[in-house]
Design goal:
The structure is a homodimer. By secondary structure, chain A is an alpha+beta fold. Helix content of chain A is about 20%, strand content about 20%. Chain A has a single domain, classed as Glutaredoxin (3-Layer(aba) Sandwich). Chain A contains 2 helices and 4 strands; from the N terminus they run βαβββα. In chain A, strands 2-1-3-4 form a 4-stranded mixed β-sheet, covered by helices on one side. In chain A, strand 3 (about 65-70) and strand 4 (about 75) form a beta hairpin. The relative contact order of chain A is 0.22. The interface of A and B includes residues 7, 9, 52, 59 and 71 of A.
C-alpha cells in the first residue's frame, strides 16, 4: 500500500452508559467512520487517503472526533453530513474546514 | 490538551483465530501499546507525545504495526523491547529508527 497523502483517524471509542466522559460511539463515531469509508470507496480515493478507526483521541466532549494527519487538525462534533466537506475542502484541496475545528483550548 | 509534537498510533486490531490476514493483537499489539503508555507516563511526556490505539493500519503481516505522525513513518514487527528506541531516537530526537521501518513496498 502506498503511503497516503492524508490519513484520517476517526474515534469510535465505546464506553459504558453513564461514564462521565461519554464517548464518540455515543456521538455517532461509527456512522462518521462509515461515511468516510463509503465516500473513499465510491470516489476511488484509496491510493491517496487512508481512514483508520481509533480509541480515544482526547476531546471526548467534542465527539465525534476526527483527526487528520500530517497536518494534525482535530475536528469535533463531526456528523456523517460533514464528511463530504472534509474530503472536498481539506483532503483533496488542502483547505481545512474552519467551522469544524475544535477550539484551540482543546487542541492547539 | 496541547497538540502533540509526535502522535504514535499503535494497531491493536483483533481478528478471530485462523483469519488469513492475522492481526496485530496476535503479534503483541497490546503489549506494545502498554509499553508506550508506561514509558510516556514514567517519563512525563504527556504534553508532547500522544499515543492512540487503532484498528487495522494495513501491513498486517508486519505486525505489530506502529505509525508515527506528522512524519508518517510506519514501523513493523515492533515489540515492547523496541519502544525505548522509538521514543529516544525518533520521538525525542527526530531520528527515525531505520531497522524498524517496514519495507518501502509495504508503505512508501
Amino acid at each position: 500500500m502506498p503511503k497516503p497523502s492524508k490519513h484520517v483517524f476517526v474515534c469510535v471509542q465505546r464506553r459504558q452508559e453513564g461514564h462521565p466522559r461519554g464517548c464518540c460511539a455515543q456521538q455517532g463515531g461509527d456512522a462518521v467512520m462509515n461515511a468516510f469509508l463509503t465516500q473513499i470507496q465510491q470516489r476511488n480515493l484509496f491510493n491517496t487517503i487512508s481512514v483508520t478507526n481509533t480509541g480515544c483521541l482526547g476531546p471526548c466532549s467534542f465527539g465525534a472526533s476526527v483527526l487528520v494527519y500530517p497536518e494534525g487538525i482535530m475536528y469535533g462534533k463531526v456528523t456523517p453530513e460533514d464528511v463530504p466537506a472534509i474530503i472536498d475542502e481539506h483532503l483533496l484541496n488542502d483547505v481545512p474546514v474552519e467551522r469544524l475545528k475544535v477550539p484551540e483550548f482543546v487542541w492547539g
